[in-house]
Amino acid sequence: DAGVIQSPRHEVTEMGQEVTLRCKPISGHNSLFWYRQTMMRGLELLIYFNNNVPIDDSGMPEDRFSAKMPNASFSTLKIQPSEPRDSAVYFCASSLWRSQATDTQYFGPGTRLTVL
Amino acid sequence: QQQVKQSPQSLIVQKGGISIINCAYENTAFDYFPWYQQFPGKGPALLIAIRPDVSEKKEGRFTISFNKSAKQFSLHIMDSQPGDSATYFCAASRGSSYKLIFGSGTRLLVRP
Questions:
Q1: Of A42, A48, A97, which has the smallest distance from its Cβ to B102's Cβ?
Q2: 8 A C-beta contact, residue B31 and residue B94
Q3: Cβ contact (<8 Å) for B100 and A102?
Q4: Contact: A109, B93; criterion CB under 8 Å
Q5: Confidence of residue A49 (pLDDT cuts 50, 70, 90)
Q6: Which of A40, A65, B65, B74 has its CA 20 to 30 A from that of A14?
Q7: pLDDT for B98 beyond 80
Q8: What is the pLDDT of residues B8-36, one digit of tens each?
């Protein structure tokens, strides 16, 4: 079974450049999450999609960040323009959300972003 | 009220010992408490989870103890092994909410 797939695994870019991170959720899952992990702030939820619709983007740090989910099998997180403080590991996670209970979130391997 | 406080920040245990990680929460509406395990270079993975209708859940060497009145829960790793060396995150969620509130993580090192 393929888990959550993220690409690229590593990204090094210069300040001011556009960065696009990609995620393929587990087939059949209807919820997708983007997280950011840093030593200082731990795991932060950036945005949550349910059935391809953004439900909660309150964690998106600022307008430089945007996320899309054009279909059930693909999502992107874009940073434009990137800044050194965006350096972090970005995780995508997916789950099968049901109205009755919180379900397990399955995390991808992450994208380590370094902005110089 | 949305925070989950986790301690200790780091933990060193000898092989065969018991590792104990603690978490505390404020929001009494939380009713799902998972623990995630993360190895270096990997994403977090669900280890074990509990709901407040039970006070303890055991899966192999891993046990969650839950104290509803104290609003605390803990992870116990019995017979700790070097392969258990990882970062452990507690989390909490409310009802059918999608949103997991994560603790700050505990870096566990099990010495051979």
A1: A42
A2: yes
A3: yes
A4: no
A5: very high
A6: A40
A7: no
A8: 999 999 999 999 999 999 998 898 999 99
User: What's the CA gap between B73 and B68, in Å, rounded?
Assistant: 8
Q: Do B104 and A99 touch (CB under 8 A)?
A: no
**Cα–Cα separations (whole angstroms), residue A21 to A8, A78, A91, B99:** 7, 6, 10, 22
User: What is the C-alpha separation between A98 and A87, in angstroms, rounded?
Assistant: 34
- Cβ-based interface (< 8 Å): residues of B facing A: 32, 34, 36, 41-46, 49, 89, 93, 95-100, 102-105
Burial A14-38 (b: 16+ CB within 10 A, else e): eeeeebebbbbbbeebbbbbbbbbe
DSSP structure string for A44-63: EEEEEEETTEEEE-TT--ST
Query: Which H helix or E strand runs over B76?
Result: strand B72-77
Contact criterion met (CB < 8 Å) for B41 and A109 = yes
| Chain segment A1-39, per-residue pLDDT in tens | 689 999 999 999 999 999 999 999 999 999 999 999 998
pLDDT tens profile B34-53:
999 999 999 999 999 998 88
Residues of B with CB below 8 A from A58's CB?
Answer: none
